[in-house]
Specification:
It is built from eight helices and twelve strands. By secondary structure, the chain is an alpha/beta fold. The strands form two sheets. Strands 3-2-1-11-12-9 form a six-stranded mixed beta sheet. The chain is globular, with a radius of gyration of 17 Å. The two termini are about 35 Å apart.
């Protein structure tokens, strides 16, 4: 089995369509979505519909929950808050109902994998896993060989060997049988690793690779301007920050 792991679409339809076309071309068996279908971008309903049609398993992220009132937006920065308020106005009842049923974490026993939007330790607190210390703490909160996460928009692989040593990989990794892994799939719709291309991960045959794809950023930005979304959110798509 080969899996596409996608996360943090953030209502960016152009980026999502490019990723789904690439997944189809590669004949991937299943798509797993790690949350944040909406927020920031201009096409929340279209993205929810595409994800619903194409993904085997879907999670909710903090922006998804904020849009339907399950997460307080007071801790969001002013730009993210403005985008959430706009999304709440345009989200259809059908999209809202679908987001409401999504979990924030799921145990995939067959794959020996936990998937979660933020962290295995406190998935509904929306903490970020950014450092090796964060990883060390969170390795104690799941027993699986693999944990797939999103949320930070930063793609990486952290390998924990049986001795406890941890090794990081940025582009691809061969996954050992006796090691354990935390893998961040990056972001389809709003990368923040200074590479503006859409990002997703492919897992299969004990290998993990990140795929980067060009998409029509200017088209997404025009839609955002037309919708009156914050300029900062529009400009950052060009720089991947």
């Amino acid at each position: 089995m080969r899996y596409a792991i996608i996360s943090d679409v953030h209502a960016n339809l152009e980026a999502l369509e490019v990723v789904l076309r690439d997944v189809k071309k590669r004949k991937i068996d299943e798509i797993l979505f790690l949350g944040d279908a909406v927020g920031y971008g201009p096409n929340p309903n279209e993205c929810v519909e595409l994800l619903k049609k194409n993904c085997r398993t879907l999670l909710a992220g903090n922006h998804d929950w904020a849009t339907i009132g399950l997460t307080d937006i007071q801790y969001f920065n002013e730009y993210a808050k403005a985008a959430i308020l706009w999304t709440q106005e345009v989200l259809t009842p059908e999209s809202r109902k679908f987001i409401e049923i999504l979990p924030v974490t799921k145990d995939l026993k067959k794959e020996d994998m936990l998937i979660v939007h933020s962290t295995p330790k406190e998935p509904e607190a929306w903490h970020y896993l950014l450092t090796l210390w964060d990883a060390e703490v969170n390795f104690h909160y799941f027993k699986h060989r693999l944990c797939m996460i999103g949320h930070s928009h930063l793609p990486f692989v952290i390998e924990r060997v049986p001795s406890g040593e941890m090794i990081t990989y940025k582009y691809e990794a061969r996954l050992g049988k006796n090691e354990r892994y935390i893998i961040n799939a990056g972001s389809v719709g709003q990368p923040r690793d200074r590479d503006p291309r859409a990002c997703y991960a492919i897992f299969g045959d004990d290998t993990l690779e990140f795929v980067r794809l060009e998409y029509a950023i200017e088209k997404t930005q025009k839609k955002m301007r037309d919708a009156g979304l914050p300029l900062m959110l529009i400009e950052r798509l060009s720089t991947g920050t």
